[in-house]
Amino acid sequence: MRVILKPVGLVCVLVAFVALTFLAVRQSRMVDGKKEQTVTSAPGTQSVGADLVNAGFEEKYVPVQPFSQEGVVSGVVAAPWVDDSSWAQVVVDYSQDSDNPHEGKSCQKVVVTEVSTVKEARVQFVQELNLALNKSHRASCWIRADRTTEIDIALRQKPWPYRYYGVNKVKIGNQWKKIEVSGTPSLAGTTFLMLKISKPVTFWVDDAKVSQ
């Protein structure tokens, strides 16, 4: 006896085959009675750790990426350090400088030429960290400027409500100076190690560190 499959019958067979294949694959993803979790990550991103990366501001430097058109932000930053001030009415340029680093071959140069007096505008230079909650951390870096001024070093919650775990306003000048801040992350989300300034100035930063 010959079995002739009509088009409708053929479609039914194909649908059944696909369904059985799907069930087989799904079953193979069961481990000890629990479904295997699929991990995905956004292209071009990397996981954030508890340790500073490129703390000596050597390599590599990448073009700064503004996330808003409010500010004028340009130049290159020592990845994964980033600018976090394009939301404000500021003009700032970043560059790699090898003329007078604190140690090593280079440091980060930041030229702030304009900071608006409205909306608490300021230049913020940051690195995102995944610090342990409810544990005290100390952060430091070496910094100098082209004039005597004040700058804040801070540990701040990255997401809203932007809680500051620690902030220290420090006077700096044309000699390298170590500045420090301590804080205890206590809320969900990652933490910024942040340098922020609200006055036009040129400053250099090198040899950052974070420890418990």
What is the topology?
Elements: H1 7-28, E1 30-31, E2 34-35, E3 61-63, E4 72-78, E5 82-83, E6 90-97, E7 107-115, E8 123-129, E9 137-145, E10 149-157, E11 164-172, E12 177-183, E13 191-197, E14 201-211
Parallel strand pairs: 4-6
Antiparallel strand pairs: 1-2, 3-4, 5-8, 6-7, 7-14, 8-13, 9-12, 9-14, 10-11, 10-13
How is this structure best described in words?
- With about 210 residues, the protein is mainly β.
- It has one domain (about 60-210): Jelly Rolls (Sandwich), CATH 2.60.120.
- Helix content is about 10%, strand content about 45%.
- It contains one helix and 14 strands, in the order αββββββββββββββ.
- The protein has one helix at about 5-30, and strands spanning about 30, 35, 60-65, 70-80, 80-85, 90-95, 105-115, 125-130, 135-145, 150-155, 165-170, 175-185, 190-195, 200-210.
- The strands form three sheets. The protein has a seven-stranded mixed beta sheet, with no helix packed on it.
- Strand 1 (about 30) and strand 2 (about 35) form a beta hairpin.
- The protein is globular.
